């Protein structure tokens, strides 16, 4: 007889409300807490209506900016932008961000109209009607972008579990077929501690470690296995190919001559040859791994993540082909220099000012 679901399981099965419900609940709650001061009841009613409009719209705008800011910042990098495009569809994130910006413009316009209407409303019922009408428009604008908010949250979670590459530091991508020993090599070369197992597709997404090859900071990227199926690539293979195309300053292509990975060496050689044709300007260092299991004559560098054979030679080869780390830029002073005016934030980024309370 199956066990009834636990309280924790029942709680996890409860669907979360749409993002618009969360945002609007906070906005309307903040709007209801306004306590204006005025000389007369009519003045207080007018200020209360205006403050409800101002505070609720400012709250929604702040949450929309928070929803989009992290994704927008990550998409400025070509690697993250291409990874998101290949995973979620080209231009999907940009369209959702654009719809959020359009909703923000509509909310600002509606708030200005409501403030003007409140200033000319003749009495308390008319002010109440102005606020209700604005709340209805505000709710409509936010509900329309529910799919975009959900999509941006999904993209944010996707990027959040993937490492952020430093733009100024050289990047070495470790690539090859599944189970050829890439993760073991990354663990031997860098600070990364990827999961290592004797079955293919252990690595499901990229991981980054750091190493010292004479540079300030070298980034070593462990990638999922690639089978060379450009048209039928799974999500893990897509991440690997994106890292090679958009992030790599050099590639260490790992081949397994023992064929214990489950793939013939000839098939691995074929993918290596194709990559050299597709990326003629990208340094590709081919190495044969698992040197402790098989000794065979070859012109390639033989390495072993178990014994450390060939690791130092590999470092020297990478040092020869990688660009040096640029000199750090001079620190920028915090305050204005000379007679320069301190920069001002754009109008949309300023925090809405709160009305001052009158002293009693």
Write up what this structure looks like.
The protein has 360 residues and is of the alpha/beta class. The protein folds into two domains: 17-160, Four Helix Bundle (Hemerythrin (Met), subunit A) (Up-down Bundle), CATH 1.20.120.1190; 171-321, P-loop containing nucleotide triphosphate hydrolases (Rossmann fold). The protein has helices spanning 7-13, 19-32, 41-74, 78-88, 92-120, 124-144, 146-160, 182-189, 235-246, 265-278, 311-321; strands at 171-176, 207-211, 218-222, 250-255, 284-288, 301-302. A six-stranded mixed sheet has the order 2-3-1-4-5-6, with helices on both faces. Strand 4, helix 10 and strand 5 form a beta-alpha-beta unit. The longest helix is centred in the N-terminal third of the chain and has 34 residues, at 41-74.
In short:
This protein has helices spanning 7-13, 19-32, 41-74, 78-88, 92-120, 124-144, 146-160, 182-189, 235-246, 265-278, 311-321; strands spanning 171-176, 207-211, 218-222, 250-255, 284-288, 301-302. It has 360 residues and is an alpha/beta fold.
Features:
six-stranded mixed β-sheet; alpha/beta; 2 domains; 11 helices; disordered C terminus; 360 residues; Rossmann fold; Four Helix Bundle (Hemerythrin (Met), subunit A); 8% strand; single chain
């Amino acid at each position: 007889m199956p066990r009834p679901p636990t309280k924790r399981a029942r709680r996890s099965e409860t669907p979360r409300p749409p993002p618009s419900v969360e945002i609007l609940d906070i906005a309307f709650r903040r709007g209801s807490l306004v306590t204006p001061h005025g000389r007369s009841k009519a003045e207080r009613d007018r200020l209360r209506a205006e403050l409800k409009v101002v505070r609720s719209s400012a709250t929604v705008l702040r949450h929309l900016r928070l929803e989009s800011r992290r994704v927008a910042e990550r998409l400025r990098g070509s690697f993250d932008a291409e990874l998101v495009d290949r995973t979620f569809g080209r231009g999907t994130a940009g369209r959702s961000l654009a719809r959020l910006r359009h909703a923000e413009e509509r909310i600002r316009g509606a708030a200005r109209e409501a403030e003007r209407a409140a200033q000319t409303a003749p009495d308390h019922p008319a002010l109440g009607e102005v606020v209700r009408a604005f709340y209805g428009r505000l709710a409509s604008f936010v509900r329309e972008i529910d799919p975009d908010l959900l999509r941006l949250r999904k993209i944010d979670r996707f990027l959040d579990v993937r490492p952020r590459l430093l733009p100024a530091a050289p990047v070495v991508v470790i690539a090859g077929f599944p189970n050829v020993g890439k993760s073991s090599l990354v663990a031997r070369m860098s600070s990364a501690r990827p999961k290592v197992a004797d079955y293919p597709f252990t690595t499901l997404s990229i991981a980054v470690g750091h190493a010292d090859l004479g540079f300030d900071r070298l980034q070593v990227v462990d990638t999922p296995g690639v089978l060379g199926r450009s048209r039928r690539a799974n999500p893990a293979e897509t991440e690997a190919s994106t890292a090679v195309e958009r992030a790599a300053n050099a590639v260490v292509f790992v081949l397994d001559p023992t064929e214990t990975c489950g793939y013939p060496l000839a098939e691995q050689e074929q993918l290596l040859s194709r990559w050299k044709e597709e990326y003629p300007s990208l340094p590709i260092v081919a190495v044969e791994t698992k040197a402790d299991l098989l000794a065979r004559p070859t012109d390639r560098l033989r390495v072993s993540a178990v014994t450390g054979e060939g690791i130092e030679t590999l470092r020297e080869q990478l040092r020869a082909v990688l660009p040096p780390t640029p000199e750090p830029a001079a620190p920028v002073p915090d305050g204005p220099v000379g007679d320069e005016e301190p920069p001002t934030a754009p109008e949309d980024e300023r925090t809405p000012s709160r009305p001052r309370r009158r002293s009693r």
